[in-house]
Amino acid sequence: MGFGIADLLQILGALAFFIYGMKMMSDGIQRAAGSQLRNILRNMTKNRFLGVFTGFLTTALVQSSSATTVMTVSFVNAGLLTLVESAGIMMGANIGTTITGWIVSILGFKIKLSTYSIPLFAIGVPMLFSKKGKLKYWGEFIVGFAILFLGLSYLKSAVPDLKGSPEILDWLKNFTEWGLLSRLFFVGVGTLVTIIVQSSSAAMAITLTMCSQGWLPFEVAAAMILGENIGTTITAELASVVGNVHAKRSARIHSMFNVIGVVWMVLLLPYILPFLSSVLVGRWGIADPYLQAEDMPIALSAFHTFFNLTNVVLLIGFVPWLVKGAIASVKSKGEDDESIRIKFIGNSALTPELATVELQKETAHYGEVTSRMSGFARELIGERKLKSQEELYKKLKKYEEITDRMEQEITEYITNLSNSEITPKTSLRLRSILNICNDLERIGDIYFQLSKTVERKNEEEIEFSKMQEKNIGEMMDLIDQAFAIMLKNLSEPSYDDVRLDAANDKEEDINRLRDRLRKGNLTDLSSPNYDVKAAMVYNNIYSSLEKVGDHIINVSEAIVGEI
């Protein structure tokens, strides 16, 4: 039986078709139900048991455990989930991913897929041209579903049938006679395949196809499936690289859970597989998977589900220990105020609908960082020691650079998201976040310029009167109160719940005080004892603070979509 480059390309092309269909299907349902998925993960994680169900349900819906685990890591990174809650979701995702195996083994090998795929195109393609967003995204899901099974159909036909020529794979026997080492070897093969194709579902499809065509014995395929459970953890680990320490720990919990499960199953595999085979043959009436390749995909799917269910049952009581292990293995380096950086965004694996959760959290973090400049400015205005003044000048300059960098990184992240197809609601949310970031960056600029004004004042030894100091302090108090309202609005899980009443009232207070200070300053200038230079600096400072207030109210208005 000849097998050349052309045959290999056929297999790779069919596999690519399968993966593309799976991605299109997953992206379509995430866009169609993005907000619902976010709410599911937020609200259905009250305890680890409910978290398992949540992870199962989400993975079964999006048909991608990677999407669920990446989403979970992102939510832990954004502070929306705890490590214990994320552990339950990760466990449930492992069970949910077994649904793909059942779909592939039952529909893919028992039904002529091409017969049903073409009618699915007839349903889905017209939906792609719909002006209604959700209908269009459901069309993507249906077309992706059709492409996935067409890819699987091509994969079946591209992989040579070796059932009639078993001698071709005699070399494989050399790797199956080492006992535990053989099982570990094929676990490694399964892990490597999953890492290469970056999809445990695709790796599962490859394994099931090779089994149905007589390439792999039952016990070898089972070991490879265990390896695929380890390989799929790499996606979450990669997603956590750009995250904070909690995101890394969440990914580590997933890895530990899967590795521990594979370890005990590898040891018991010679006993579990015969037992499972006898149950399937006796109760389900399928052919012996050790002898007949046709029903091996069904047996492997049953093994996959049995393994993940049993692993969850055994380890769910040990979640606190898994969390402790993750904390011990991923050390916190601590946070230095002067090395502030983007905390919550950076993972490009999420669809825009799901990425907005991280973006909103990052924007709140950006607002909190910017608000610190108000405290530094207050210290600077009242500071008399030259050395302390120099430190505050540097700190305000540093924070101005930080606000510039944060705006740039958030803007670049949103720009990258914009390359994907976005729902109208998500598009409006991203536009609001861009406006918010622009105002926060302008606040940073104003405080830096204010520090330069104070620096010139100190160099020229200009002194404020007691009344001027009191008035500036009163203005800064109002600004701090406005910041507190802004930060509360930015921290709302849903921008739809934000109201402007408190923000508008505080903006009016700031404007009234500005008008009063301006009028008083102009009146006092007519007095011969009034220091003109001090009056000019004084005017510059309270006017700058009022401009900060303008940008603060702009942030709240952008949150509710009024800008």
Sheet with most strands:
none
Residue-averaged pLDDT, rounded? 79
Rg from Cα: 30 Å
Low-confidence stretches: 162-169, 335-339
Strand content: under 5%
**Tally of separate helices:** 21
Structural class comes to mainly alpha
Task: Return the domain count.
Answer: 2
Shape: elongated
Explain how this protein is built:
By secondary structure, the chain is an all-alpha fold. The protein folds into two domains: 5-329, no CATH class; 338-559, Up-down Bundle (Methane Monooxygenase Hydroxylase, Chain G, domain 1), CATH 1.20.58.220. It is built from 21 helices and no strands. It has helices at residues 5-32, 34-43, 48-62, 65-77, 83-96, 98-110, 113-128, 133-158, 180-197, 200-212, 218-231, 233-240, 245-284, 296-315, 319-329, 352-382, 386-417, 424-459, 466-490, 501-524, 532-559. α11 (218-231) runs antiparallel to α13 (245-284) and α13 (245-284) packs across α15. The chain starts with a helix and ends with a helix.
How would you summarize this macromolecular structure in one to three sentences?
The longest helix is centred in the middle third of the chain and has 40 residues, at 245-284. Residues 162-169 and 335-339 have low confidence and may be disordered. Helix content is 77%, strand content 0%.
Features:
mainly alpha, 563 residues, 21 helices, Methane Monooxygenase Hydroxylase, Chain G, domain 1
What's the layout of helices and strands?
Elements: H1 5-32, H2 34-43, H3 48-62, H4 65-77, H5 83-96, H6 98-110, H7 113-128, H8 133-158, H9 180-197, H10 200-212, H11 218-231, H12 233-240, H13 245-284, H14 296-315, H15 319-329, H16 352-382, H17 386-417, H18 424-459, H19 466-490, H20 501-524, H21 532-559
